[in-house]
Amino acid sequence: MSDIAAHSLTGETTVPLLEVRGLTKNFHVPGRGNNVLCALDKIDLHVGRGETLGLVGESGCGKSTLARTLLMLEQPDEGTIRFEGSDPFGLKGKQLLAWRRRVQMVFQDPFASLNARMTAGEIISEPWATHTDLYPTKKARAARLQELMEIVGLRPSDAGKSPQEFSGGQRQRIGIARALALNPDVIVLDEPVSALDLSVQAQVLNLLNDLQKRLGVAYIFISHDLSVVRHVADRVAVMYLGRIVETGTTEQVFERPRHPYTAALMSASPQLDVTGTAPRNRIVLEGEMPSPLDPPSGCRFRTRCWKAEEICATLAPPAASAPDDPRHVAECHFPIAADGMPAAGGPVRPRNAVNLLAPRQ
Amino acid sequence: MTSHTQTATAPRDQLTEGEVVLTVTGLDVDIRTPKGVLRAVNNVSFEARAGRTLALLGESGCGKSMTAKAVAGLLDPVADVTGGTVVLNGTDLAALTPKQRLKYAGPELGIVFQDALTALNPVYTVGTQLGEAFRIHQGLSKKAAKVKAIELMRHVGIPQPESRVDSFPHQFSGGMRQRILIAMAVALGPRLLIADEPTTALDVTVQAQIMKLLRDLRTESHMAVVLITHDLALVAEEADTVAVMYAGNVVETGPVREVFGSPKHPYTRGLLDSVPADVGRGADLKSIAGSPPELHRIPEGCVYQSRCPLVQDVCRAIRPALEPEGTNRTVACHFSASSDTKELDNV
After folding, report:
1. Residue numbers in A near B209 (CB within 8 A)
2. Given an 8 Å threshold on Cβ–Cβ distance, is B276 in contact with A197?
3. Which residue of B has its CA nearest to A261?
4. Which family does the record claim for this protein (chain A) (predicted)?
């Protein structure tokens, strides 16, 4: 395990652990004029071993559909998922089962995602009922259960309790232990702390951080809370209406956003700054995200963008790298320049654009 | 006391910024459960001033929403105000009967709830629901109330109000529904607006819009705003003063900048340390150990004793009262004066 963990800080390995290319998922909605809902539109992303990819975006942008597709709970319409070079969508039977072991998920709501009729121990050991070869003997399973509960900070003696006897933070620990039960390489965390109180949230974030260091597992961390993502992620992908509009390292995306949506998102998120004397001004976007049943032509963000011009309505912007780093990619015809000054004026009012790019304290 | 119509239509004496609008003193709320009576809100006191925002900050179950509901007179039948006064513009609301309260709900006090979809009635158009306040309090006709409703919708930034006034709540987006709810709350120009987690269900870009609307409305009418939230960053940006609640008790109050800049209560300090803001990637956050006590297990003595790093014997025996700290702050901790919570750094 230690050699795996050694890669975790570099982020980029030669072959990404998980690589997604052109992933598209449409849903057909009955009884509507235009009845195709494009939830994912040609998504590209990759995750290295031991790395954390943060996935941010507002509700309805396709974050959770992406998570479900990565777990093969949804069949994509187009595109490929490569796991260490092989495509799991061609697999069947035992091979598929073996693949599924490697990608696991932690769900958002620890109150709804645990079966109230099962004990904590039963919930954590349930994956072994399907993957029978992993811990074939009763004794091995019991030993592993105890180990898992200790890893996530639960008392093994509580294995017989039912979920409702635990607090919210402890329940999420049960969810994490269940995800770890099959020793996965990737865990998809779908809003793992958003249902928790702040003081408990910090405990769970520390646990996730600790587990990654010890086990070298990669995380795809989905959240709408930017301060949490900034804390946990090595790289960040920003989603808007089914597309990834910007990716880069956490530092790049947070401190030098190139896509206007990223800039607006960063700016809209309240900041805990008690040293500042003047109230922080910010970009307030007009309107809300359009319906994915009827996305705008061209650039999907143009209806709310203060930089939008004619070309944005006719031509979807291609993914373009930043001049200083090819890994910092944004899909915008008019990306915010590296000197950090978004253009002023237009329908939205960046009343004080300088603050936007000042590093958070 | 004036009649309904007079109260609502009489020209409102203009509020001057900073004057006290609401004074809550020693508020107790009990909940009757099969297990016995639980104290959900204990001896809570705070003030809200015209043109200012007071934040009630706390984690889930700390009693902040229960406090708001008690002030608004909207407690569930199993909960009762068992002590204290809620004085709004000279009248103790807690002493009124539900019927007497009616004339204050709307003209004097408005409330915005967290989840607009459940707060709005799905079978009436938004125009009907917005106009209801004018029909009840000002005796307007249906037609006149609809005109008022359209005016209100325009005021809170809903596009094409003339055509949308006949739409049902489900035909609006989340942000627009929240705007409608705010419009309902401010329809009769209340002195006090209680906003109970008004943006928790919304995305950040929409949250920014709604908070701006609330700010603009407050500036316009000089109403006092009580913002109930668990989001420290939102408090830092939106509120003037803050009351931090824990397990039904207020543990610290004061101007936001002072409280967040140098917290005196270990809980406030712990909350601020739990925010993943200025810690580098991969570094551990300073979390608070354990979780808040359940209502039926609130200990004797200090409510925070089980999680407090400064706990001593006295904390287990005597519950600290909310004592003045400097000129405009209060804190309920035995060790707030003798030891700055910075000592926690070494714990």
Report:
1. 284-285
2. no
3. B205
4. Belongs to the ABC transporter superfamily.
In angstroms, the separation between the Cα of residue A132 and the nearest Cα of chain B is: 35
Angle (deg, nearest 10), helices B204-221 and B174-186: 20
Environment class of B300 (CB within 10 Å of its CB; exposed 0-12, middle 13-18, buried 19+): exposed
Cβ within 8 Å, pair A199-B270: yes
Chain A with chain B: Cβ pairs closer than 8 A: 129
Mapping DSSP to helix (H, G, I), strand (E, B) and coil, where does residue B235 land? Answer: helix
Q: Which of A72-76, A212-216, B238-242 has the lowest mean pLDDT?
A: A72-76
Rounded to the nearest 10 degrees, the angle between the axes of helix A168-180 and helix A198-215 is: 20
Contact (CB<8Å) B277/A269: no
Q: Decide: helix, strand or coil at residue B319.
A: coil
Chain B: closest CA distance from residue A312 (Å): 21
What six digits make up the tokens of A202? 């910090």
The complex scores an ipTM of 0.80
- Element spanning A169, H or E: helix A168-180
Q: In chain B, positions 290-329, which contact chain A (CB-CB < 8 Å)?
A: 291-292, 307
- Residue-wise pLDDT tens digits, B48-103: 999 999 999 998 889 999 999 999 999 999 999 999 999 998 899 999 998 898 88
Which residues in chain A are contacts of B344 at CB distance < 8 A?
A: none
Model confidence at B269: pLDDT above 60:
yes
Cα A44 from Cα A58, distance rounded (Å): 19
State the first-to-last Cα distance of chain B, in angstroms, to the nearest integer.
Answer: 57
- A305 CA: distance to closest CA in chain B (Å): 12
Q: Is residue B174 less than 8 Å (CB to CB) from chain A?
A: yes
Q: What is the residue type of A114?
A: L
Residue B253 contacts residue B239 (beta carbons within 8 Å): no
- Give the single-character DSSP code of B93: G
A62-110, pLDDT tens digit by residue? 888 999 898 888 888 999 888 887 777 777 778 888 888 889 999 888 8
Is residue A278 predicted with pLDDT exceeding 50?
no
pLDDT at A5: 35
DSSP annotation of A181: T
Structure tokens at B307: 């999680």
Of the candidates B256, B280, B54, B205, the residue with the CA atom closest to the CA atom of residue A273: B256
pTM attached to this predicted model = 0.84
Instruction: Identify the CATH number of the domain defined by range A49-72+91-233.
Output: 3.40.50.300
The structural domains of chain A, with segments of one domain joined by +, span 49-72+91-233, 248-272+280-352
Which of A50-54, A164-168, B253-257 comes out lowest in average pLDDT? A164-168
| Whole-number Å distance between alpha carbons of A250 and A234 | 6
DSSP annotation of B285: P
The minimal CB distance from A169 to the residues B257, B273, B291 is found for B291
For B212, counting Cβ atoms within 10 Å of its Cβ (0-12 exposed, 13-18 middle, 19+ buried), the class is middle
> In this prediction, what percent of chain B has a pLDDT beyond 90?
67
* Subunit contact A198:B278, Cβ cutoff 8 A: no
Question: B252 vs A11, B84, B244, CA distance in Å?
Answer: 43, 19, 5
Q: Which phi and psi (to 5°) does residue B252 adopt?
A: -160, 140
Place of tokens 């996730």: A208
